[in-house]
């Protein structure tokens, strides 16, 4: 297959109620703190991973709910043109077994030590990296 520089397709696994809201607007104030890359909107390039996350989220939400009020798993697909990232402040991690910088960053974010900031002003617009799978400290 030849490189085409086509859009980057990413997925967000969630529940049906949240998916409806996300289609209208992504509200970062609803983001969870103490996550791997800090407060933000998380996506993956793996549909399978997003689907699994959505199923697990709904399993937890639906515990104790009657069938009529249960939420369903949903995966929202986004297409982003790669040139849209040209003017963004990016932080990219490529995980290797010895990459302590990645784990230091994840721990920093999980412990809520404030926004991750580049040397320039503001915060990173986009952080790319592998799934941590909740490595223990």
Radius of gyration: 17 Å
Query: Describe the biggest sheet?
Result: 2 strands, antiparallel
Give the beta-strand count.
4
Low-confidence stretches: none
Could you give the topology of this structure?
Blueprint lengths: L7 E8 H9 L22 H15 L11 E8 L9 E3 L7 H11 L15 E3 L9
Parallel strand pairs: 3-4
Antiparallel strand pairs: 1-2
Offer a concise description of the structure.
This protein is an alpha+beta fold. It has helices spanning 16-24, 47-61, 100-110; strands at 8-15, 73-80, 90-92, 126-128. It has a two-stranded antiparallel ribbon. Strands 3-4 form a two-stranded parallel ribbon.
Keywords:
137 residues; 3 helices; two-stranded antiparallel ribbon; alpha+beta
3D structure, described in words:
The chain is α+β, with helices and mostly antiparallel strands and 137 residues long. The protein has three helices and four strands, in the order E-H-H-E-E-H-E. The chain has a two-stranded antiparallel ribbon with strand order 1-2. The radius of gyration is 17 Å and the shape is globular. The model has no long low-confidence stretch (mean pLDDT 82).
């Amino acid at each position: 297959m030849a490189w085409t520089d086509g859009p980057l397709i990413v997925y967000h696994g969630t529940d049906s109620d949240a998916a409806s809201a996300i289609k209208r607007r992504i509200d970062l104030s609803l983001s969870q703190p103490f996550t791997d890359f800090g407060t933000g909107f998380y996506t993956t390039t793996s549909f399978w991973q997003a689907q699994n996350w959505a199923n697990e989220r709904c399993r937890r939400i639906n515990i104790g709910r009657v069938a009529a009020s249960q939420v369903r798993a949903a995966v929202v697909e986004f297409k982003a043109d790669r040139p849209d990232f040209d003017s963004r402040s990016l932080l990219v991690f490529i995980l290797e077994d010895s990459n302590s910088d990645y784990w230091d960053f994840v721990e920093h974010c999980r412990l809520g030590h404030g926004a991750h900031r580049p040397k320039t002003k503001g915060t990173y617009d986009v952080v790319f990296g592998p799934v941590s799978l909740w490595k223990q400290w």
